[in-house]
Amino acid sequence: MPIDIIMPQMGESVVEGTILRWLVHEGDRVEKEQPVVEISTDKIDTEVPSPVTGIIKKIIYPEGKTLPVQTVIAQIEAVEAKEAVSGIVSADVPTPTLEPAKKVETVKAVTETEKIEEAEKRYSPLVRRLAKEYNINLEEVKGSGEGGRVTKKDIMDYVASKPGISAPPPAEAEKKVLERKTLIPLSPKRKITADRMVQSKRTAAHVTTVFEVDMTKIVRYRELNKDSMKREGIHLTYLPFITLATVRALKEHPILNASWTDEGIVQKNYINIGIAVSLEDGLIVPVIKDADKKDLLQIAKNIQDIAARARDKKLNLEDVQGGTFTITNYGLNGSLFGTPVILQPQVAILGVGAVVKRPVVTDDAIAIRSMMYLSLSFDHRVMDGAHADAFLHKVKDILEGWEGSVYEKKMSNPPTGYGGVW
């Protein structure tokens, strides 16, 4: 009875995946846990391992095909180890008559061939391709997979640990030039992202509200403490402050920490904040779990960690699952404000604009202040504008009235340079 290989569920909100590349052909023998196909979703790219040792009986869908999760994409005929050995031993193979010396040479040749083949079986086509691109001797890479098998993660960890190894130049996108027009083929990640954005706009009743926030107190606090934080290994940006303020506001306005279903609104009693990270080939949203239980320092460390691992392609599947609310910081690129698209099945997303100095009226006088726009896109099916504005007003109040002693963990021996506030 053939065993099905299915398109796996790679996250709570993931409903489909794309077959990037088959690593095997029909009729190939594969070992249990050997990667057989590379797939891509809007969450993560990964390899799907074989569930058993056996023979690939049928590959149902070709490369480039996008399919719903749980779809059967191939079938494998299981082969028990004992059966395989028995079949080899009992095979009716004629034994040629050879002189003793030649027999020894034949056995030796077969042994060397088997050693080479066995070594090749330990590495998937993806691993061999990466090793070739980075000019790596795979025998030097310690495998963390089953039976010591070298995985993609092992290769990238090895590259990261060797400063002398430089990344290969990116392959130039295939382009078809027609007169004065250029056709750029869609990458699987770009196509999936496009489909998700269109799906979100069709699903949720998007509305965006914008608040202006005076970030002057945050700017001063950051200037006072950024050098001391740097000694702790943290590059202090504005995002941890905004994230912490968002978490506090969500606790008071939990309707934004929810999802829509036909049966009703599912309000989450935990807060997992997704932080959108821009990559060369698209966008990914790693998640800070239980953000409501963390202080400014912990959130700053978490943001720095997930952003670095996202850009190094070292995120695990669990790193991109379980988000309940998302923050996207387009201010990094100088944008003042935007209207971000909600990440389904969430019901709101906060957009962060650039912090810029400009003249504003304060206490009936013109002053130079550090200002920022916050835009909140929300699902009008779940809440009305009054709820969204109340939430955003709370975020604004926290940031404008920032008091580090209120929002940060007290330490018995705080690092010098923090102005006594921790």
Query: What structural class is derived from the secondary structure elements?
Result: alpha+beta
**Name given to the CATH architecture of the largest domain:** 2-Layer Sandwich
Q: What is the number of beta strands?
A: 21
| CATH domain class of the largest domain | Alpha Beta
Largest sheet features = 7 strands, mixed
Unreliably modeled segments: 84-110, 173-178, 410-422
Tell me the domain tally.
Answer: 3
End-to-end C-alpha gap: 63 Å
How much helicity do the residues have?
25-40%
Evaluate the radius of gyration: 28 Å
Which of globular, elongated, flat, extended, rod-shaped describes the shape? globular
How large is the share of residues in beta strands? Answer: 15-25%
CATH fold annotation of the largest domain = Chloramphenicol Acetyltransferase
Query: Count the helices. How many?
Result: 10
Model description:
By secondary structure, this protein is an alpha+beta fold. It folds into 3 domains: 1-93, RNA polymerase II/Efflux pump adaptor protein, barrel-sandwich hybrid domain (OB fold (Dihydrolipoamide Acetyltransferase, E2P)); 97-168, Irregular (Dihydrolipoamide Transferase); 204-407, 2-Layer Sandwich (Chloramphenicol Acetyltransferase), CATH 3.30.559.10. The protein contains 10 helices and 21 strands. Strands 11, 14, 17, 18, 19, 20 and 21 form a 7-stranded mixed beta sheet that branches. Strands 1-8-6-3 form a 4-stranded antiparallel beta sheet, with no helix packed on it. A hairpin with a 2-residue loop joins strand 9 and strand 10. Helix 7 crosses helix 8 and helix 7 crosses helix 9 (385-400). The radius of gyration is 28 Å and the shape is globular.
